User: What shape does this take?
Amino acid sequence: MNSWPIFAAGCGVFFIVLTGLIMYGMAQFRSLERNDTNK
Assistant: This one.
């Protein structure tokens, strides 16, 4: 199974990117809420 290391690396990269996108989206959402409360 020579394709297993490539598959594992792909899953790891995908998980890291997905986590980063979720954290970035939550930060953007909180900044939008903060701007609405300041108005």
